[in-house]
Amino acid sequence: MTDLEYEVVDVFTDRAFAGNPLAVVLGADDLETGQLQAMAREFNLSETAFPMAATDGADYRLRIFTPAVELPFAGHPSIGAAWVLASRGLLPTGPVVQSCGAGRLALEIAPEGGPVGLTGGSPTCSEPVDVGPLLRAVGLTARDLIGVEPRRAGTGLEFSYLLIGRDSLARCAPDLTALGALDGAGVSVFAWDGEVASCRVFAGGVGVPEDPATGSAALGLGVFLVAAGLLPDGGDYTVHQGVEMGRPSRLDGSVVAAGGAAVSATVRGGVVPVAAGRIRRP
Known about the structure:
Layout: E1 4-11, E2 20-25, H1 33-43, E3 48-52, E4 60-65, E5 70-71, H2 75-87, E6 94-100, E7 103-109, E8 116-119, E9 124-125, H3 131-138, E10 151-154, E11 158-163, H4 176-180, E12 187-192, E13 196-203, E14 208-211, H5 215-227, E15 234-241, E16 249-258, E17 261-269, E18 271-279
Parallel strand pairs: 2-3, 4-6, 11-12, 13-15
Antiparallel strand pairs: 1-2, 1-18, 3-4, 4-5, 6-7, 7-8, 8-17, 9-10, 10-11, 12-13, 13-14, 15-16, 16-17
């Protein structure tokens, strides 16, 4: 029984030991779901990615696990796994197509280890939702809000979005039980200055108390910004996340809008390798 190669990379950063760490395990195509989940628990990172051969015409298939559950889609595993495959010569640079639980998604891999861009799936956005459970889940009150009703939004994985004051970010005190009871993957709380969102993302719904960089939430944020009238015509935006965790991250987003609704969203970020090794098959 052969061991499997893995790499650990930091995603949405230009330096090691920042951004969001990701384990990418290679050659796991023949493993069962329980075995993949066991390896994700062993790494105990927010996500572990398993690139595999695709059968639907995509360049590759990606399965993504938190320590608790399998996800249909996530941003930093998609970007990090594509970067690792390209760095090993297993994918070309330029446009590639990833198959995952959210369908076939387009990525753009820059040459020479440059950043990777990911276009999410079809945007979705709810009507305004009850703010009370969201505030209780993140330990804030109505005094922290900045006049925009919360909604769930996403491009394959939905989050709830709460616009708050900049000083309120440090006061968040997540309740994991309350987070787990909410619809969607979690809650993104953010302050907005018209171009930059300072965010914290609590993904208790998928077993991640707080995430230092969340590509899927950054994509959904673009959808929310359009729906909430904060970026009504679409455009570029920047997300800063992970500061409170000591892992500062930068996610560069862009959303295309038509008729007051998001049509597509893209997020881009850098990847830095930090470790490599072999792991036993469970």
